[in-house]
Amino acid sequence: MAKVKIGVIGCGSIAQHRHLPEYKMNEQVELVAVCDINTERANSVAQQYGLKAYTNYEELLASGTVEAVSVCTPNYLHAPISVAALNSGVHVLCEKPMATSEEEAKAMIEAAKTNGKKLMIGHNQRFVASHQKARELIEKGEIGKIYSFRTAFGHGGPEGWSVDGKDSWFFKKDEAFIGAMGDLGVHKTDMLRYILNEEIVEVGAFVESNAKDFANVDDNAVCVLKTESGIIGTLAASWAYNGKEDNSTIVYGEKGILRLEDDPTYSLVAQYATGEVVNYELGKIQSNDEGGQSNSHVIEQFVDAVAEDKESPVPGEEGLKSLAVILAALKSSQTKQITRV
């Protein structure tokens, strides 16, 4: 079977810890090239993997050597690079948040459609075993009507793991556009939409910068969300959880409660109103703390979609819906109003 020829654009931490090692492990992949505007970084990563190094993504795309690329750049470049890649006939896996505006996101979706290429957004929380199981249990009516939820995604901040530390683009508004809400919050809106199988329609939010004095983006946000059927809940996204990462979600229903990634041993705990408790050991959620081989399932899903010509598992339309919630949260925080998505 012919292997899928892949290039990775942007050689920062997410490329080095997730995309490159996961592509390398994948038997359906031939890694061809990497690209980074930092020449030294591009060369050093290329050397490590035995690839060709580029410092200009247009040159890489024009080379005709790759069938698909991962876009692992600062947020403000996601859309222009993805659109350029799709227009040059290359499939795209883009990191989240997919874009910095709805217009940009729609341009990406349009480019994928026009060129008949796959666009996938790297929302890995859909592939976490506990989240998949929760979706299944909720769908089966296992905990009855859903009333409420709370979810959080917080850690000490990207300076702990970004290749550039405190100088990282994550903290610069003109490159990142949005801070913790774009880094972590968008993962959780996507996860909630996925497990509840409903759209979020209204948002009230405080999106603040109160923890990192060297940054000019948000680092602490708390949102109240309402879904189309009237489920209400909270979402917290933070770069100021300094002791331990929190990636937990709790769903409250008429017959019981589901606790996801909340217990150190069991990735899903179902607590029923009858007093019965069911513990599921489904393997740990991925965190930035762990060493060893990473498998976010995003890469294998993307490669499989390209190799087998299947639908993109997280298409641009889905990325846009999750982004729209974040944009509504920003607007709510600025206007001090509840905002419709």
Automatic annotation (TrEMBL):
Q: Name one GO molecular function term.
A: nucleotide binding
Q: Where is the GFO/IDH/MocA-like oxidoreductase domain?
A: 131-258
Q: Which InterPro entries match?
A: Gfo/Idh/MocA-like_OxRdtase_N, Gfo/Idh/MocA_Oxidoreductases, GFO_IDH_MocA-like_dom, Glc-Fru_OxRdtase_bac, NAD(P)-bd_dom_sf
Annotated Gfo/Idh/MocA-like oxidoreductase N-terminal domain residues = 4-123
- Highest rank taxon of the organism: Bacteria
Question: PANTHER family, per this entry?
Answer: BILIVERDIN REDUCTASE A (PTHR43377)
Q: What is this protein called?
A: Dehydrogenase
